[in-house]
Amino acid sequence: xxxxxxxTAWSLFLQYVEERCSATEYANWIEPIRDVSxxxxxxxxxxxxxxVQEYLLDNYKKDLQHFLPTTPSGQLSVEFVIAxxxxxxxxxxxxxxxxxxxxxxxxxxxxLNPLYNxxxxxxxxxxxxxxxxxxxxxxxxxxxxxxxxxxxGVGLGKTHLLHAIGHYIRKNQPKARCACITTEGFINDLVxxxxxxxxxxxxxxxxxxxxxxVDDIQFLQNRTNFEEEFCNTFESLIHQNKxxxxxxxxxxxxxxxxxxxxxxMEWGLVANVGIPDLETRVxxxxxxxxxxxxxxxxxxxxFIAEHIYNNVRQLEGAINRLSAYCRMMGLDVTEETVEKxxxxxxxxxPSKKISVEGILKSVATIFGVKVSDLKGESRSKDIAFxxxxxxxxxxxxxxxxxxxxxxxxGGKTHSTLLHAWKKISGQLSQDDILRRQIDMARRNLEA
Length: 447
Ligand code: ADP
Ligand code: MG
Fold this sequence. Notes:
Elements: H1 2-18, H2 23-30, E1 34-35, E2 43-47, H3 50-67, E3 78-82, E4 100-102, H4 128-139, E5 148-152, H5 158-172, E6 177-182, H6 183-195, H7 199-207, E7 211-215, H8 224-239, E8 243-248, H9 259-265, E9 269-273, H10 278-291, H11 298-307, H12 312-329, H13 335-342, H14 356-367, H15 371-375, H16 381-397, H17 402-407, H18 414-428, H19 432-446
Parallel strand pairs: 2-3, 5-8, 5-9, 6-7, 7-8
Antiparallel strand pairs: 1-2, 4-6
The protein binds adenosine-5'-diphosphate and magnesium ion.
Adenosine-5'-diphosphate (ADP) is lined by residues 22, 24, 116, 120-122, 127, 152, 154-160, 284, 312-313, 316.
């Protein structure tokens, strides 16, 4: 049957994605999508809301093109329909994407990811600060920083920390009324309650909480009507000293939200989750491998961590894939099996050796200076800063001794290099422009 062909293509896609993303990502974003295609040449996907559609296209467009029909010019030929909202009895909150921990009522199940604890969060220089802020808030909700605003790139542990706070409070203050919502969940909830004329109940529910955990506030951008209600809820809770924790892919000031809400979000503490450095990535890899029952030699862990550098979720994906591959083929984990099973995940082809020279050229281009200046002695800020950036990148990307790396910078000492690395690592957590410049320099290296 034709219709079943598209079902097969969709289920193959599902299988493909499931192997590559975290269980939470899959459960939140992929699982809610239904294939409602009437025939194989007309693929129709039903999504619970526009965010899920955008998420799917933003993250998996290329993969979808592999699995699902395309136009002769190679464009994805898929239609999307938004599912009718579920009309539940006017219990609050009404939708199933709102995981609620309401410990005063045993009927509402907690949907915090059980794996996202403080204990399972590996610390390093890039996330130590944000982790201790999260722990501080969890220990003394409403009495330390309020709100706590956590921002950082995709797959760096924001949701993990948010849920860790939820678990901690649930365990240590079982009476506290604590809800964890995704921003899209809040919007859907609001839409449903407006429709059902139960807005007052919803307001009452949110405003009676002791702790509100809000994931991915960036989805509130350009949704003015919803923003106002969110802002009111926010103010009401903060005025009662109730704790709010928010995550976002950008710092408050860069969000396209009203000045009022941005100012509120900056009231408390704004903390960044940065990209983990090489050693932390290795520690995360080893930890994840251990939980899967596989042993990865240290050299191999370094090899993987050098190639997958800006997303912890991808590191997890790598471990899953590697362990499946080695089990299936009955092989040990070695550099060779890693290259065979992971090469397409690697952000740089393993055969392409990164050199200090390459880094110097790339950094020189981005900052508009000469390679010879970077290797020289000039202490002028225009030269010294890009030099420190290049040193930071060299330590991050090349697994050589500091002495050897430093000598490639026109004979600098290893302590100069280490100092540069520390300075840039520290600055990275607060400086988005610098982060972008380094990303660009990295991409140049790949090209
Ligand atoms: P984000 O919300 O920032 O996109 P997540 O919190 O979903 O990222 O993290 C992606 C995956 O990486 C999760 O499975 C999470 O457990 C894992 N992860 C991220 N950072 C760490 C860390 N420091 N230690 C252990 N696991 C981590
Ligand atoms: Mg997240």
